Amino acid sequence: MSIDTQTARRVAKLARIQVEDDALPALAAEFSAILGFIEQLNEVDVDGIEPMTSVTPQRLKRRDDVVTDGDQQPAVLKNAPDAREGFFAVPKVVE
């Protein structure tokens, strides 16, 4: 498939990319090369092949999904300018 300069101009406009008129032929050639590569990929028979996320099978380390409070309250509140009853205290801004 071949892309002409008018199509390249329209794609650039849709992508909100400013392209000078003298750069449009090169952009059209790049688009054509990309589409040619996609056509080559479409020729590959991938029936029965399972998609993979890595070249080596890996299992991610897992941990129990347990809700906790983090046990960090004292460490966090020690940096607060004003803390009361285990919470940040802030000045009232709305009457």
Automatic annotation (TrEMBL):
Q: Does the keyword Nucleotide-binding apply?
A: yes
**For this UniProt entry, which residues form the secretion signal?**
none
SUPFAM superfamilies, sorted? Glu-tRNAGln amidotransferase C subunit (SSF141000)
The record ties this protein, via Pfam families, to:
GatC (PF02686)
Q: Key word Nucleotide-binding present in the record?
A: yes
Enzyme Commission code: 6.3.5.-
Gene Ontology molecular function terms on file = asparaginyl-tRNA synthase (glutamine-hydrolyzing) activity; ATP binding; glutaminyl-tRNA synthase (glutamine-hydrolyzing) activity; transferase activity
Looking up Gene3D superfamilies in the UniProt record yields:
Glu-tRNAGln amidotransferase C subunit, N-terminal domain
The UniProt keywords, alphabetically, are: ATP-binding, Ligase, Nucleotide-binding, Protein biosynthesis, Transferase
Highest taxon of source:
Bacteria
What family is this protein classified in?
Belongs to the GatC family.
UniProt-listed HAMAP family: GatC (MF_00122)
Complex and partners: Heterotrimer of A, B and C subunits.
Report the function annotation for this chain: Allows the formation of correctly charged Asn-tRNA(Asn) or Gln-tRNA(Gln) through the transamidation of misacylated Asp-tRNA(Asn) or Glu-tRNA(Gln) in organisms which lack either or both of asparaginyl-tRNA or glutaminyl-tRNA synthetases. The reaction takes place in the presence of glutamine and ATP through an activated phospho-Asp-tRNA(Asn) or phospho-Glu-tRNA(Gln).
Q: What protein is this chain from?
A: Aspartyl/glutamyl-tRNA(Asn/Gln) amidotransferase subunit C
